[in-house]
Structure formats: C-alpha cells, structure tokens
Model the fold of this input.
Amino acid sequence: MKNDRVLLQERWELAVTRIRQIAESPEVSGEFGEYFRSAANFLLLMLEAWEKAGRRWMESASLEELETWNLRLYEDLLGENYKKSYANPAFAAEKLGSGYGKIFSFVSAELRGMIVYAYEQRTEEMLICMELFLQLHAEFEGSEIPEADRLRDDVYWFVSDYSEITVAGRVREQIDPELSFARDIIMESDLSDPRYLYRFGEYISDTERKMSKFLAGLPQEEIDRIASVFTEGYRLGFLAAGKPLNKKKTVNIRYSVGFERIIRQAVKNFRDMGLESIIYRAAVSRVNMREANKIGYYSSSPNRQYDYDHKGDAALFLDKAFAERKLGVLRTAYERQKELAAVHGGPAVMEIFGETPFEPETCPAAWKLNDKQQAVQVYLNSRMGQIVNEYIKGDERSFTIIAFPVPDIGSRFEEIFRETVKINTLDYQVYQEIQQKLIDALDRGTSVHILGKGKNRTDLTVALWPLRDPDTETRFENCVADVNIPVGEVFTSPRLAGTDGTLHVTGVYLNGLFYRDLCITFRDGMVRDYSCRNYEAEEENRRYIRENVLYHHDSLPLGEFAVGTNTTAYVMARKYNIEAKLPILIAEKMGPHFAVGDTCYSWEEDVVTCNPDGKKIIAKENECSALRGEDVEQAYFNCHTDITIPYDEIQEIAVVHEDGSRTQLICDGRFVLPGTEELNKPFA
Done:
C-alpha cells in the first residue's frame, strides 16, 4: 500500500495538471467560465509562490523584485481593483448572481490563504485548497449549471471534513515552539535590510517599511528599554497575581510586522526568563477566524473593506453540527498537545495605533449570520473558551499588552512615538499612591454616579459590591504598569443589580471600527437597548452594534467599571489631535471606562488578588459569572469591549454613600478628590 507521502504527491501532481488546463481553457461558458479562469490563474500564482519559497528566492531577490512580487500577490484587493475582484461579494454577485456570487466570493477569500501556505511550505493546506477549486469546477462539467445549494454543500463539507487539518493545525501553531517560521525570520535576518519584511508573505505597505526603517535608526539602548518594559510587564503580571512563572516554558508574542527589532530583543528577554517565544500569524482560513479580529502577527490590510465584507463568512457553514464537529476536533487537538498547553504562559501583545480611521460600508451581498446562527456562534465561542481554559488554565496564565504608534499617524510620528514611550514608562509609584486615595473613597460608597457634559448624554449609576471587612477588603484594583501598560486606572466588577442608566459617547473607535453617537442603556447591569448613528437605517445601526459590540448576544452585562487617571496620555492625545486613533489600551486610561461582556477576572475569580496595600479584592465576579459552577455557558460571554468617555465629556463622577450623600471624584472634567490634584497638572 502506498504511503501517505506518495499519495499526497500524486494528488498534488493531478491537481496542478488540471489547474493548468483550466487556466488555459476553463471548459465552462459565460461568467462562470471567467470566474474559473481567474481563480485558476490565481492558483498558478500560488504555485509560483510555492516554488519561489521552496528555493528561498525571497532571501536573495532584490528589494525592487520583492516589492513587485508582493504587489502581484495582493493587487486584486488594492484600491479600485477590488471593485472588479471576485473576492468582493458585490462584484461576484453582480457577475454570477447573488446565490452563486456569495459562494464564489467566499471561495476566493479562502484561496487567498494559500499565500501563507506557499510561504510556509504547508503542502496539505495548499492541496486541499486546490482540490476545493477543482471540486467546484467539476460540478459544472455537465450540460446544466448546478444548483447553488449543491455548491454550498461542497464548501460546507470541505470546511467540516478538513477541520482536522485546519483547526488542529491552528492549535499546534498556538502552543508549539517548534513551529518557528516567523521567529526564525526575526532572529536570523539583517533587520537593517528591509528585504526581510517580504519573507513573511504578508502585504507590505509604506507602514511596515517606514516602521522598520525608524526602529533600525534607534540606538540599541532605546530598543532594550522599550523591549524591557514589554517583557517586564509580563513577568510582573505573574508576580502580582501570585502565579508561578517558573512552571511555564512558552509565551505567545503578538505584534504587527515592522516592529521586528523590538520583538527580537523581547524574544531574548523572555529566554532569560526561561520562556521560548511562539509567534504565529493571524488566521487565514475562515474556519479559524473570529469575524474581522486578527489574533497573532499581521501586517497592514491591503483592503479593510475586504476584511469587513468577509467578517460574516461563517454564515456559509455554521450550524450546530459543524459547531460540534469543530469542538470535537479542538478537544482532540488539545488532548494530543496537552503537555505543551500546560506549560504555555499566555500572550504578550504589542498593539499598534495611528492607522487611517475606517468606517465600513454595508455590503448587502456579503454573508451575514442569521438569528439561529448567531445563537450557534455564541454557543461555539463559549464552549471553545471552556476547552482552552481546561488545557491552558486561566488561573495559571497571564498576559501583558502595550501599544505604539505607526507612521500613518502623521508627520509628527517620531514625536508621538517618543511621547508614547514616555507614557509607557511613567513612574507607577506616583500613580499607585494617588489611585489608592480614589479607591479609599470608592470603598466608602454603595454606588458611583457618572454624568455626561454638553452633548454627552451619559447618566449612569454603577452599583458596587458590599464590603464585609473594609479593613482587609477592597472593591477596586489599583492598576499600575504590569499586564496593562500604560499605568493609570482603578477598576472593579460592578454589581449588576442596581446598575442602571445610559452610557453615551459622541464618537469612539472600538476594535478599529468607528461608532457615532453610541448609546447603550443598562437595566440591572444588562444591556437593555442600544443605538448609534453610523447609518441612515436604524436596522443597520443595530446590526452593526450587535455584531461588533455584543458579538451576537441578545444582551451582555456591564463587566467592568473603571476610572482612568492617565491625564498625561489625555493631554498628549489632544496636543497631537490623535484621540480618535488611540487604541483602547491607552484610551481606557483617559477617562472613566465601561466594559460590556466578561469581567477582567473571567476564569480566575477564585484566585486571591490583593492590592499593594495588602487588601484583598473581593469584586471579581458578577451575578452572571457567579453561575460558573452551575452553568458555565451562562457565566461567560467570551468578549470584553471597553468604552471610554473622555474627561471633557464628563460633568461629574461621584461616589454615592448609603445615606445618599456624595463624594465627588471628578467635576467638570477635573479631579477634585483631595490628594488627587497632581493628576490635573498635565492640563495646565
């Protein structure tokens, strides 16, 4: 009997031969023939990429050759080209009809993952993509055009049957340090030579080129300082939570291409801690994506509208049977890799900000989850979270997050970068003392009232958990610069009962998407209603929020309330007029913020956490997460979206006492609690 390698080679040769024939003559008439010709030519381009990567052409080619080649890989998504790309659901529907167009646009997007498979020489993934194309082409070999549902079934079974390759492979990518494609590039390349950027297979724009060039010009001691803040925050996260770092052997670094010089030093720093770095890229197969979110390493998108158009692609295949199939594969994969999972410490994330603001357009031809599928997606996310937590235990892992600007932010990029480094390295002891005064005041109340100013319509009361022993217990965490860099907030998990009112922001970016006049109403801590003014149709506005803030849930709890204290960051943002471009990581420190979804302590509510003053934090759960022992699916929502109100939109934040009296923390956008006046100095 032939071995697997020989069979794989035979399948490969047959597929390549057939694809070449179709590229020359698609054997299908009309618009469908044009689609197959176009897709076959793209597959030939992927085979060329495979060949180039196999002989390491990317390491010897000139910069001009690499730039030209990179544009060839992504040209159909760039600018005006996207309007005539089959990866555009609107164009595909126009040419092939809405039913067929949605399917073939999905397939076009799925085939684009072959760029990664070619660069990483992943034979099996390359082959199954080629065979999907050939299966669909074979359906047209008869005299009649096949029904769209038949083609959809073909794609469904492709996604389901091959999940043992795609889903299991993704698990291994996340925890196995032997998969070192990106790490090898980072550690072995000459990072002063921009040609290394093109070895990843990602789209390389001016953003990546300029960022890499800027970092190449910094002295090594500056690189060391930046990397040290990043990696030390990770170490301190374990220390502060009382978790044993010495039990861990791996850390996952997530970052954006262009920052390799900092990442190289971070890898070295982590090795000094006994940790090997795992650097996997953002998912490229629809089965492993979570809508438009990118988790891993990635570069600038060649077209953010394309990303948004395909965020709902799971609607093609998502049903309860597929969900159970994926969960079974996921559990099996983790069970096989359980030793690696047990020693994985969690992510160290370097975010970016400053990209050109993006407001997506609605594409009626794009896939969208229906109500039933939304419920399945919620169930799937919940169960996946439980499985991951079973093997990479929440009470044993930690994380850290830091953010830096990219050159897109404007002509004053270098100034902003230096200011960001300054913000990320502020003296945490100064903030720790001031924040303790805020916590002391908050611990004397029963609720907090937040009132907006001017056009801001916020009027919200946040209920606080009672303290049994105020001498040894506290509700709010004194957050300094460890897992959540930069310094500057005190936060709690609110009591849902009694948390009522309206949260409003005039304009805010959440996960890269803009919301105009976002308004959320809470009743007993749960989202009761929501609206924004991005689109003319109210239905579109509600869908926008439900998909991208509620993540298809009917409602979510208020999982966190915090008071941000980093007025230095706020003033910097105003000075350079970049408030709209800041990531939530920094923005959440620039005013009160509220998270819808899980609490900050999800999956580790029972881990004892204390503030620097020794008091135990008791507000680590709410009425939802308290159900984790009875029904874990009702306890966790697997999302957490922070929404910040800037200081200049705040009329008052006041602690409300049991007798109805009030203690103001902020009045007219300034800190007024005695002992916190130092926070107003940056405003001067």
